[in-house]
Amino acid sequence: MTRSIARFLPIALLLIITAIFLQARTRGEVFPPRQTLSSFPQQLGDWEGTDVAIDDEALQVLGPGDFLLRVYRDEQATRPPLDLFIAYFSSQRAGDTIHSPKNCLPGAGWAPVQSSRIMLSTPNHVPFPVNRYVIAKGDSRQLVLYWYWAHDRGVASEYWAKYYLVADSIRMNRSDGSLVRLKTAISPGESADAAMQRLLPFADLVLPRLDDYIPR
């Protein structure tokens, strides 16, 4: 128990310092121009997207921000659909920081059965770490990739995201940031690695377009 508390204390201290620092900042915050997420392309390669409404309860949990939840379907209907969720916060100085998907899964009835971090390599961008989860509810399984994205930088750890939030607030006078999540159902008899081969090319289509909606 003592060892667990000792590991938790630095994390708690970081979160407290982050909150105090951001609320104490008095300089006018910089808000770079950007396009709204609703204008994110509905056609990505041979995937066609359909928006999904986010319910009021979820919006209250998320707080003030710009959100996109969209299902992309294969035009030939030969592959399971892909879900894209992006949450962008123009400012995180009033306590409206990004919520980890790990906290939402149990409430939705999904339980993680595998978790790891992988390096996401996409054209024209340096590799960066992302979270990889296999989640299950009854007989259904899904593969989830998510990461925190701000100023053309991707990180998997929510604590590193908090660190960069403070650093960027000092360096750039900005506290904006986002969460990007990709998800697909794992078909019966399909492996998680096979489902991954659907998500990775889709990530290659999403990533180059983020700069217009999540400013560098």
Brief sketch in words of this structure:
The protein has 4 helices and 9 strands, in the order H-E-E-H-E-E-E-E-E-E-H-E-H. By secondary structure, it is an alpha+beta fold. Strands 1, 2, 3, 4, 5, 6, 7, 8 and 9 form a 9-stranded antiparallel sheet that branches.
Enumerate the spans where pLDDT stays under 50 for 5 or more consecutive residues. Answer: none
Question: How many DSSP helices?
Answer: 4
Number of strands: 9
What is the residue-averaged pLDDT? Answer: 87
What characterizes the major β-sheet? 9 strands, antiparallel
Please, how many domains? Answer: 1
Report the sheet-strand fraction. Answer: 25-35%
The value of Rg in angstroms is: 18 Å
The shape, in one word, is globular
Provide the succession of SSEs. Answer: HEEHEEEEEEHEH
Roughly what percent helix?
25-40%
* Class from helix and strand fractions: alpha+beta
Alpha-carbon distance between the termini? 42 Å
Care to describe what's here?
Strands 1, 2, 3, 4, 5, 6, 7, 8 and 9 form a 9-stranded antiparallel sheet that branches. The chain is of the alpha+beta class and 216 residues long. The chain starts with a helix and ends in a 10-residue tail after the last helix. The mean pLDDT is 87. It has 4 helices and 9 strands; from the N terminus they run H-E-E-H-E-E-E-E-E-E-H-E-H. It has one domain.
